[in-house]
Every structure is written in C-alpha cells, then in structure tokens.
Structures
1.
Amino acid sequence: MEKKKLFEIKNIRTYFFVEATDKQISEDSIKQDPRLKELYESDKYLKGKVPAKAVDNVSFNIYEGEVLGIVGESGSGKSVTAYSITRLIPDPPGKIVSGEVIYKGKDLLKLTFDEMKEYRGKEIAMIFQEPMTSLNPVMKIGDQIMEVILNHEKISKEDAFKKATEMLELVGIPSPDKRMKDYPHQFSGGMRQRVMIAMALSCHPALLIADEPTTALDVTIQAQIIELMLRLKKEREEAAILLITHNLGVVAETCDRVIVMYGGKIQEIADVNALFETPLHPYTEGLLSSLPNPDKPKGKLRAIPGIIPHILELPKGCKFATRCEKVFEKCWETEPELIEKEDKHFVRCHLYS
Amino acid sequence: MSDNSKDTEKIASVSILRKRWKKFKTIKRGYYSFLLILFLYILSFLLPLFIGRDALIVKYNGEYSFPIFKYYSAESLGQDLQGEANYRLLKKQYKEEDKGNWVLLPLYPYGPNENLLDEMGGNPPHPPSAQHWCGTDDRGRDVFARLAHGFNIGLSFSIIVTLLTYVIGIAIGAVLGFYGGKIDIFGLRLIEIWGTLPFLFVIIIISSIIQPNFLLLIFILTLFGWIGIVYYIRGEFYREKARDYVSAAVSMGARNSKIIFSHILPNSLTPVISFAPFAIVANIFSLVSLDFLGFGLPPPTPSWGQLMQQGLSNIDNWWLIVTPLVAMFFTLLTIVFIGEAIREAFDPKIYSRLR
C-alpha cells in the first residue's frame, strides 16, 4: 500500500550570505542562477557577499506515520534542512532562496510570520539539541508548557494547567503537579529534554522535528528519550518524526527511511534496512564502516579520511569527491543526479549512472 | 524519608529572582540600608504626624477637634489671634488658663513652610537650638522640618522619574533590540539626536517661560532620562534573542509580543535592576542641582537644593550648608549601598580565588 504524503519538500535552497573571500568566482556563479541574480538585484544588503549553500536543492517527502532520519556529518546541512521546514533560519544572514514545503496543499514558505505561527507548535514542533539552553531560565516549567497549549487551543488556564501536568506525567517526570512550579535550573539535562518533548507534543503536531535530541544526553537516557518520542507519536496516527542525528545506532533502531546528506545535498535515500545492508553511495559506506562492529571486536575502526571541505570551497562536481575512495575523473567535473537505483533507493553517484 | 521530602518541598520552586533576593538579604550593609530607607520613606508620608505645625488633637470646652485634617480659626479655639490658630501658643495658653483644655502637638511642632519670626525675634537665620535642631533659614523657617519634608519630595520625585524613564527606555530598547535592522539604525540615530539636546538649557528655557512645578519637572527629566536605559536593554536583547530558548519559543508558535515580554525581557532585566538605585541617586542629585540653580520646584516647597542655595548666599550661617549636605550625603550613601548590594546579588560570579 502506498503511504500518503504528509509533507512534500521541494527543491529547498537555503543559503547563508557571507562576506566574500574571492569575488570573481561568486559573481560568475550568481549570474548563472536567475533566482540568485534576482535576489542580488533586489537586495542591496547582499552586495559583496557570496552564498554559502548550506542546503542546495533538497527535495524529499515525509509520509504519514513514518520516522524519517537524516544523517550526515557536522556541517552537512541536515539541521538547516530541518530548520528550513519550520523557517527558523536567522535572516540575515540566512535566506531560503527558493523551494516549497507543501503541507495540506499549502506552501508553508509563502506564509507570513503570523500565519506561520499557527503551524508552529500545532502542526510542526521541534526538539532542540541542547536541552540546557532551550528552556527559558526565568519561567516556570509549567508556564512554558501551558504557553504552548494556550497559543493554539482556546481553553481556560485551569484546563491548560491540567493538560500540561498530564503531559509532564506522560514524559515520565515524577510528581508532575509539584514540578510544574519548578524552574529549569532545578532539572537535569535529561529531565529538561523530557520537558521539551512534553512541550513539543502538547498539541499533538503532525510533524515532530527532533534535531539531535539525544546528542547532549547520557547514553543511558538516550534510549528512553527516543522511546518517549516514538510512544507519544501514537497519539496522532498520521504524525511523522523527522529525526536528525549522526548516531547511526539510533537510526537503525528507530527510523523507517533514512536520508544521507553531504555538502548540502542529499546523497542517498533508502529504507533503513536497504541502507544498512546495501549502502550504495561511497559516503554511506564510509559512515557505516566507521561504526564499531561487535562481531569483530578486534579490528581497527575505519574512518573516512579528511574533513568536510569549507562550504565555500566545495568541489564543482560531486561534493564528496575530495574524500571519496572510488573517485574518478568524471566526479570532479559534473555533479551526478539523484537517481532511483533500486526500488525506493535513491543515490547520487557516478558509479551508478 | 519524610524529612527528605520536606526538604525538597522547601527547595522547590525558588525563582532566580527570589534566589537573588535571598542573596541580597545576606549582604548586610545593603539590606539594612534598604530597610532603613524603606522605613524612613514610608514614615515620611506620615510626616505631619511627627513634624508639623498643626496640632493632632485639641480639646477645647469639652469638644475635640483635629486640626491636622481641618482648618480652625484662632477665635474658634479661644485664641486671640487673626487667621489660623497657632497651636504652640495655644498649648501655652491652655496651660496657663488651666481649664481642662489641652493640645496634642506633633513631636516636632514646626511646619516646613511656617514663618517663625513672630515667636523667635531677632534676625533670621537663627542658629541651631534645642527647639530648632537645625536652626532656621533666612525666612525664619525651621530647617529640620524642611529637610524632613524635602526628603519625601526628593525621593518620591526621583522614584517616579526613574520608573517612568525605565518604562520608556525599556520599551524603546526592546523594540530596537528585537527588530534590529533598519528600525535599529534609524531609531538609534534619532535617539542620538535627541540625546544631544542640552538638557540644562532646555530646563532653563522652559522655566524662564513657565514656573515649573512637580509634574512638569518630572515630565522634563523623564523626557531626557530614558536614553541611557535604551542602550542597556537593546544590548541585552541583541544577546538574548539569539539564545536557544527564544528559537524554541518561536518553534512552538509564540507571538512576537509574547517572545519580547515574557521570554526575552525577564532575561534582560539584570543590568537595569542593578542600575536602578544609581539612577535614583542621579535623579535626586539632578533635582537638588536644579533647585540649587533656582530652576527647580517653586519657592515655598521644601527642598534641599534651595537650602543649599540659601547657605551659599549666607555663607556665615554654616548650618544652612552643612545640614542639607549631610542629609543628602547619608541618603545617597544608603541608596548607593543598596545599589552595591543589588549588583552583588545579581552577579553570578562569586568572588573567589585559589588559595
């Protein structure tokens, strides 16, 4: 059975405009791109700046009820992709240059701030990486959860309080009615992340974006937090989760499909089993082989050599060419297309074209 | 176990503000200064009960009257005088007559605007004496009474001005800091232009046209006083709006007004709160200087600056200079102590070193 599309993300390009180091290169590439040319002509602020293509032409769908993982190294554009969906891109310097995020027939990127706030929290909620700083230090926990509820639902404060208490209980905070009156500094990191989850899920959003929700947490807490997100998702059947992580273990355990990103582009999309069993892209292979394998505890871990190049100095052809083991001439010249190599298994690599 | 839960209950829900208040209490010098000023300030609203010319209660021919609330002519109380009764003389008179009539005077029975020339004789200013603790000024008015009333007026004035400038400064600073960009650039330029207006000249010009009163002076000082706060709040907003909790609030669909007022503002108040006592000091000081220069409150109002002005023109009469200076010195000192303590209480860094 074909699953229904919940979100359609089409050709998103999120650029950060930064001070240029080498103007010649940038001006050429700007002239080739009609949309950029238009932007540069209309906005004088951009003069003398070059676009750092944090997310470049990313398209994917989020289906109902699925857990979609985005993996990649730091700086590969996975967080910016997710932030682009909720439009939490600081502008300036960032700008969503083009693209569409279609939800229920509406393009979220065309809404005003006021229209957008109806969707934020209610339809799309986020969990951030750093639970220590993502709660307001001078507001009571309860008030912060209640605020989300009161933003979107027309109910009395008493009801909101009750609902917030229920949410706290649901995420496993002991004696929630007492803790409602506590301040964030009285909570540990794991507890705060639970509170964040309670806030994010208090309006039962259609899409939960979790931006490395377990990175800052203890290993012992990580599994609980992930489980919590998955369990609460069941409140709304069609709800989907977009899980951004660089922890492949978490991906293997929780995700249905995985997007592998590198250099601001999608390199591979596959079902989780297909990805782990038959990774197509050399980058994915590299990621997987850098995982410790419990069956061969004595072997050396293999790392992908080198580091991700500076975002302004990405190669012209395949973005991964600088570090790829299987690189050949064509890789440097033209960028491969994202093709469907096997059923629902997309890859962007010249090895397969 | 039960002890434990009790403890956690006690620890629970201590807001940062309350924590800081607790820390403030431990800084004794500031805390006691605060209590002292608070006590004196509240007391100063009841001043007529302690320092004033009107008697609290008069019993005359079996009837009680309360001159502190109401005007009584001298005749109606059996005194052989024109106009309002003089209660000090009345007391003496009743005593001599010994008819069971009596007068209950305030502890210090001299009013701030009362001319004592008739009773004292000689030429004003009179030096300090047992009756007049700080002597009288050049119009024969009791200096101590004037100082006490001046305390209330000066402190009220500067608290009101501080509050008003804070409200305006915080609102404008918040808007500039939050929206940034063009609003910030143009807003700041306007503020800079406004800030270059010479405050003293404006006051001199205005008061040469109209006699300034309490409200007008508050208005003028507020007009020029809010600028400093804008920079603090704007800077704080610039810093705070990039914090994670703000993006978290945005991602949950909060309104801009909610983000400004309930998320960023409470987190940006620290410098403003620690600055407040010093602002109050500055405002007391400006009122005193304006009064000293003669552009302040209209003449009969008891004010410290005006006393100092008299002291300057009667330089031999030391009490006219020393008493307002001492009063001002101690008032400002206590407020500065409070300010120091608040600053320390809000300082997250505990002063320590490796030993």
Note: The interface with chain B takes residues 86, 88, 90, 113, 117-122, 124-126, 128, 130, 133-140, 147-148, 151-152, 178-179, 181-183, 185-186, 196, 199-200 of chain A (CB under 8 Å).
2.
Amino acid sequence: MVHIHPQTKSAAVNPLKSSQPLGAALAFLGVDGAIPLFHGSQGCTSFALVLCVRHFKETVPLQTTAMDELATVMGGEGHLEEAILNLKKRANPKLIGICTTALAETRSEDFERQIANIKMMRAEELAGTEIVLANTPDFDGALEEGWAKAVTAMIQQITRRGQQARHSRKATIIERITKPGEHPDKRKKVAILPGWHLTVADIEHLREMVESFGLKPVILPDVSGSLDGTVPDRWMPTTYGGTSVEDIHELGTAVQCIGVGEHMRRPAELLQKLTGVPYAVFQSLTGLKNVDRFVSFLSEISGVVAPPKIHRCRAQLQDALLDGHFHFAGKKIAIAAEPDQLYQLATFFIGLGAEIISAVTTTGASKILEKVPAESIQIGDLGDFEDLASDADLVVTHSHGRQVAERLGIPLLRVGFPVFDRLGSQHKLTVLYQGTRDLIFEAANVFQAHQRMPSPEILDGLRKRRNAG
Amino acid sequence: MYSLAAKIQDAFDEPACEINRRKDASTRKKGCSKPPTPGAAAGGCAFDGAKVVLQPITDVAHLVHAPLACEGNSWDNRGTASSGPMLWRTSFTTDLTELDIMMGQSERRLFHAIRQIKEAYAPPAIFVYATCVTALIGDDILAVCKRAAEKFGLPVVPINAPGFVGSKNLGNKLAGEALLDHVIGTVEPDDAGPYDINILGEFNLSGEFWLVKPLLDRLGIRVRACIPGDARYRDVASSHRARAAMLVCSTALINLARKMEERWQIPFFEGSFYGITATSEALRRIAELLVKKGADTEILDRTDKLIAEEEAIAWKRLESYRPRLKGKRVLINSGGVKSWSLVHALMEIGMEVVGTSVKKSTVEDKERIKQVLKEEHHMFESIAPRELYAMLSEQKADIMLSGGRTQFIALKAKTPWLDINQERHHPYAGYDGMVELVRQIDLAIHNPVWSDVREPAPWEDDPAVAEQLSSPHTHSATASVAPLKTSRLDAGDFAEC
C-alpha cells in the first residue's frame, strides 16, 4: 500500500506543477482551427504562451480577455464578450476554448450563463464558431485536470447526443454516396481520448496501430496534426490540424471509446452517458503487458488479428527488454510527474528491475496514485524532490528539474511538460511496443553515459558487507 | 489599494520622460500604454514587469504570493547571469489553494512561507510579490511583510504590482518604486568613493555586462550597484552613495533614476551599451558626470584614450564582415536591444536596415534613428503577426532580429532570425558584444539550411503527385487486415488495464 503524503509547507519551492488553464489550453490546441482564450489578466496568457512556445518551438495561438482593474472589480463579462467577438472577426476560428483563470474564478461569476447570453445575443456574428467553456482556476489541479476538463467540456457542450448523433451520421453517409466512385467508410469508428502526456509521436503511432486493425480512429484532442512542427505555406492565426469540430460533434457514432490515462475516465464516462458509446480506460500504454492487452482489445473490437508488423514490434521490444534489463536492475529512480505519467513511468522502471526511491506528484486527487509501485508519494514540488532524490541513480522529470539534477550531480531524463532545453520532445515515442523499446534505450544510454570506471574506492563499497555486524 | 493607485498615478506622471512632457495634464494621467484589447493583446502584466526588474538581484529570495500560475508557469525563464549567488533561480510561491482563498488563510500562509524561507535559506532579504488574486481578496502584504521583518529580523520587501493594474512597463516602474521605498538608502556603505557609479536598467543578459565592466575597471570606475543585473541586496541598499548613474533601459526605470537624483543628488544620463558609438558615448558621459561631482579631470583623457583604442579594434574586427554582409537587409523588431547606435553600426558595415521598431525608444533615440536611416517610414511601433509573416515570406528582409515571441513567424517564413531579447544566448553589449552580434548575424544569414528548406520537394513540380498529396488527412488503413481467429475475449477484461 502506497502512502500518499499531502503538502504541508507554506511556500512551494521550485514548482513541479504547470497551471490548470494551461492544461486546458493544450487540449484545445489539439482541435483544428481552434484558439484557446484565457479569461483573466494579460499576464496569465503571456506566461502560458511563452512556456508553450519554449516547449513546442511553434507559434501557439493563445489569447486573453485582458481583465484590467475595472473588470476585476466590476466583473469580466464585457471583456469576455469583446474578446470572443474580436477573435471571431480577426481569425474566424472554428472553436474558441475558454479557460478561466484564478482571477476570474475568485470573482466566481456565472460564466456559463454569460456565454449562453453572448451566444444568443451575437448568434449571427458568431455563426460557424463553437464556444466551449472549461472552468479551470489556477488554485486547483494542474495540467492533467485542466486537460481532462477541457475534453469533458467539449464532449458536454458540443458532441451530439444519443439519437441525434445517429441521425446525423446517416445524413453524412448519404451525402458521401452521392460522390461517384466513392464508397461510404464502413470501418468501425473508435473514439480515442489520449491523456495530455502522450506526445505527437505517440498519437501518430497510436493512430497507425488502430488503423492497422481496419478501425477508424477519431482522436480527441489530436495534437499530432497541430503541434507536430510542420511549416504551413501561409500565416495561420488559429491551430492548423487536429480533431475537426465535425468529428467532435459526431463522437457518439463510435462503436467504442478508449481513454488513455486515468484522467481520461471522466470524459469517457460522460461520452457514454450522453451517447451510449462504451468505454475502456487504459491507465498506461507503456510496458509489454499493457500493450498486449491493448492489442488484444483492438483485435476484439475489430474482429481482426494483429497484423505482422505488430508482431515484429513486439519481438523488438522483447529483445530490448533482454538487452536493456542489465542496465536497469537495482537502479534507484526518482520521478516527479503528474499522476498518470508518474504511474506510467514508475511501472516502466519497476518492470525492468529498477526501484523507485522517490515519487513526487502534483495533486492528490487521482485514483491512479494508489497503484503507483512506490512506497510513498509526496504531493509537492521540485524542492521536495531534491530532498528525496539525493540517492538516486537517475532523476526523471521535466526541464525545470535541471537545477535539481545539477545540484545533486545526477543525470536527468526529461519527460512531460515543459521540456524547453532539449529539442524534439514531441517526437519522442513513449507508448506501445515501439515507445517502450525507445524508452528502454534512452534510459539505458543515460545509465551507460554516466557509468563510472571501476576504482578501488568504488569497489570498497562492495566490500563493506551488510551482514558483517 | 489607495497607495497603489497613487503610485500608479505617480508613475504615469514622470517628469523626466520626454514623451510625457509633451502631453497635456489630462492625457498624462492615463499613462502611456493603451489598455490592452481583449482577444487581441500581447505582452505581460504588471507583476511580470516587476519580477523582470527585480529577479536578477541574485541573493534575494523572490516569493510570489499567488495561486500557481503566476510563478509556476514563469520561473527560470530569463537568461540573466550571476557571478555568485544562485538563490534568484530558486522559485518560491505560496501556491494558494481554493481553501486558502475561500477561508481567508492566505495572509497566514504568506507569513509562514516567509518563515520557511528564512529558516531554510537565510537570504539577506525576501521580496514578496502581490498578484491579481491576492490583491483582489484584499491581502495586506505590506502589513504581513512589516510584521515578518520584525519577527524574523531581515528585510521583507513588499512588491505591490498585481497583474491587473496594467502593463509590464508599469510593473517595471512599480518595482523601481518598491526599491525606493524599502531598499535603497537602508544600508550605509563604508567604502564610498569618488569613482562610484550606478548602472540602472541593465539586466546582465547572457552575462553581457561583463563585457563592459572591465572597461570601467580599467578607468578606475567602480560599479556601486548595477540594478538589477548580477546585483546583491547590499549593493542595491547602499546604491544611494554613488556619484553618478547611467540609465540603460530608460523606459523601465526612469522614475528610479530621477528620484535618486532628487533624493541623493546622483546625476544620471540615458545611454546604451549597444553599438560602438553608443558605448563610447556612455563611457565619456560617465567620466564627465564623475568630474562634475568632484573627480579628477584626468579621467577624461584616460577615457578618450581607452575609447580610441577600443573603437579601433572593434571597427577593424567588424570590417572583416563587410564583404559577407554588405547589402544584406535587416529588420529589427524588438523593444530590447536596439538603438540608433546599433542601426548605425550595422549600416556602417554596409547592411541595409529595412525596418526598426521604436516602441520603447526615447524621443532622442527616435530622432537619431531618423537621421541615420534617412527614411522615416522604416520606423514602426509594431507589426501585426500576419503582416510580418507576409513581409518575411516575400523575402523583404534577409534577417530579422527580434525576441522569442516572433521567432517562429520568421522561421515559418523561412527567414533567418536572431534572438536579441531576454532569452538569447549571446552577449551583445559593449565593443566586443557588437562584434559578437555581427558575427551571429553572419552565421544566421549564411547557414546552409536556408537553401535546403526553401527548395520545394523535387516531385512537387509533378501536378498529379501534388494533388494526391494535398488531399486532406489521408490516413489510409493498412492493407494487411486478416480476420480474427482467436477465441472471444471479454471486453470487460480490459476496462481496468
């Protein structure tokens, strides 16, 4: 049984968390033609934007309602309306994802009613643009919660429900048939709700695997189309690529929904409630057994056996486990990450014979924490992490851990968000057979790079016999 | 909040600001920056501005009293450098939870946070930053800081610049006010001398002030305090005993310079270390001010001699870049590193300045840029991203110098780009800094990747292939789809995987 220690300090030292609205914004960035809009003061957006740009190395469309002193005292509805209308006029987005901040939420206005009003009064001007609200105050949760809330909000607010969804599906099929020579897509549709910690490469790879079973994946959010680092041939004020708004409307026509990460259970549950689509949550897609279950599940819903390519990938992973385990066995690992990523990585390292000597996470609400294979988990920051990780062979966290790693003199494996001092974090594969294989290689290479040459002093450590007295 | 409102009015009514002097009384009250447009705003808030100015003070613990985002999303993101203490890079925030806010526990939490930092790090001072939420719920950080300072026996300085009060620039000025109110003049130095100066508004980005300081050392001039770059709390606290001051980033700290002149008779001038002529002029004016305040006049000759030596070396080194950079068109789009002198130096080696932003330039600076450029329309306040992209993709500039915010506009338009703002990795100040800047421009423009990325794929000339490629999202299903033969599995088995 893992002990979960709550935060007791008054000052957070070197925060591990990124804020909840930032998590929501990341999710909205996975929708095609979208602009996330922070409802708060200008700085809330500016800080988040700079952090996103440093991580993705991309232009990131992110806007602000720019609440000033007057709006802070009198209420921000006017600013909200003005921002929405300005965005519509300037960029004509298909979706505006509103993420409230601590400033707006401390005033606790009825944002839902305000947005309903704006939509009603400005129906004509706003035609063709969906407006989705996620309540994401900074004083609660972190990235994971923000991401899940934004996905939940999209399903709640714009996915067609029950019967409605099925009707509209028929309509689209009929439309498609009218095109000569084209057959309606008979592939079974699978709705996939990936957690925030899946990279662009993860999502692309996941899509390919699901397609290889003859299934049609619809992924929400899909950052693989929007934040994958391509060079568009014109200036885009919104995201380019990602889940289409139409696909979000039609999510209820899927035969199955798959959530990746415990934090995607809530949106998956909601989708089932609203449309009847059954769901399964895979808490991690890293590690041989986890992937085996996933592959079997895809076989089950598609009625198709796993294609040869997948067998080959599995065999490669088996080999990587054999080659890699020498480097992991007995190693002491310290991980600081959001709950689902902590679970994913802790189980990965344990699965290769390493030991988790310290685990720090952002918030204590997730059920997954009980399953993390560590003796205890500290809800806290990188200051706590530094205190707990001093005996580790490897520290695993995001780029803000660089100071910890430097001071402790322990190598750092960068994961999650933000990674601002290394290139290509979005193209790193961490899930399925290939991702697990790549992770083994990456970590094993770090161990090898930091291997010390034998010396009498190092061997002295071995001669100090534990049972000698 | 009353005193804060008064401070803001005071900051807007800056008599040393040339732009301000030209306004009438009523427009002056409104301040310089227009209120941001919801849905079309860029740039930071007042808290951001205050932190930017104060955080480089290296041995101070900077504690942000706020829910997570204000500090959690923004720490360790600037490239200022320290020659000693690293405490400034450690992030402290009260990380308020919903419970703290709803139950009114935030002031107590702040007090305990100060205690925690004092006990664990024993810094010479703690700076406490107010933010939107803590200002909105009425936390009295002044009172908490005062009480904590008495109780724990160290300076605890309230920085009252919550984000919603205005722009980043206003925050810069409020930070200056906080130093005036609580820090400067609180420590008497025992070593004040006739060659002591302050440098105000120099951030020591990428350690670039260390390219200038040796020059001052050679002249026997001591930097009493460089605020804020690589500063120590004690230096700032005793900076009122300097004889003269140079104001580097004038829009950020002009109020500080003016009030230090009023209170402690420290004369100042506005100058820049960007560009060769500007650096020489700065050195000369420092020497002149010191002489005016009683230093020996022989320093003037020594300064002239040093300038002549250094300029000759710098121009000679720059000359070697002329063949490679002559006729190259440069667009300067930044509020930071830019001055008439930089424009002048680039033109001197044969580059063409096709545009420069003058957003944070002083009136004098603008006049001089106008003279150097000759064409006034090459000066602009700001450019919309869309226009900027169009301009660059039509290859109207060979390189853009700007900050991270517009980096990817240039790169996506396949245009060479050089960071000249706070995240940059190269020092550009002083004579050697100018040479380094030109070297970086040369490296950027002549990188072999540009010809690679601009070339279309060879098959893009083939219309049939191009059409096939441009059809949206063709994620074709893999061909090898075989029927399932294994026994049935229960879907429920996987629900908890």
Note: The longest strand of chain B covers residues 196-202.
